[in-house]
Amino acid sequence: xxxxxxxxxxxxxxxxxxxxxxxxxxxxxxxxxxxxxxxxxxxxxxxxxxxxxxxxxxxxxxxxxxxxxxxxxxxxxxxxxxxxxxxxxxxxxxxxxxxxxxxxxxxxxxxxxxxxxxxxxxxxxxxxxxxxxxxxxxxxxxxxxxxxxxxxxxxxxxxxxxxxxxxxxxxxxxxxxxxxxxxxxxxxxxxxxxxxxxxxxxxxxxxxxxxxxxxxxxxxxxxxxxxxxxxxxxxxxxxxxxxxxxxxxxxxxxxxxxxxxxxxxxxxxxxxxxxxxxxxxxxxxxxxxxxxxxxxxxxxxxxxxxxxxxxxxxxxxxxxxxxxxxxxxxxxxxxxxxxxx
Length: 341
Description:
- The structure is a single chain.
- By secondary structure, the protein is an alpha/beta fold.
- The protein folds into two domains: about 1-45; about 75-155 and about 185-330, Pyrimidine Nucleoside Phosphorylase, Chain A, domain 2 (3-Layer(aba) Sandwich).
- It has 15 helices and seven strands.
């Protein structure tokens, strides 16, 4: 590990093989914490490359618990990296119900709150959906409803020690970027928000290295890890190996512009109420934020030719009650499990 630390401290990038070895060492309980901390700090100062991030993601997937018996569907994940500090409402979690209602199979990776007042797992539990449940319950739900939420710590038990190290550091590291890349379900499509507009294209390159057929990386106003209704959103589309960069605004897509404060979230109880009212058709800034991000998800999955068409289909899914029905169906799945205990 010391050789890798020295190389990175010299501002030299690691090869795929070097980063793979370093990643295995970071996940090894025998590696001293101080070495891991020094390596993460040096890597952050140098600036992570797409190759280094891809190597870490592949290694983490090797160490992850598997989701057994997953039906062979073309799954999408729409989770973001988090960490933007903007405390927005749980947009991607809400959009997941809309996407599944539009016949996009969604395997959504998530965790508890870090920089927000309510992480996806906190919100889901308030809705009666225990996302912390063991992975054996994921496959039947994916087959039945084409939607399941995967609790990251259940999939990646070796990250517990890394989490403690990151808490001690208190600064962003490469692990702030890796969450959306290590879903234990093999993904075909991906919509990912990151909080670094400058890293949108390299992140799309990582998704290419990981074998995604089509993916969309977005970074909104003030580094929001979602597409934003305020200002410009920086985007990179991966489509069959080609990466195309562009920007979008809400107005050019036919949506109103709102300040970031309009989509602020609250506690899990407050966010659960917003989500339910939204899926029942209440139209406001939260509604339009979900429309935009669900529309982008449909576009990322190749279900529509344009983002505008995706927004229209997402709106139909909510107005026709299909998105709320999907929420109810997932809830009932877990209620039945509780009754059979």
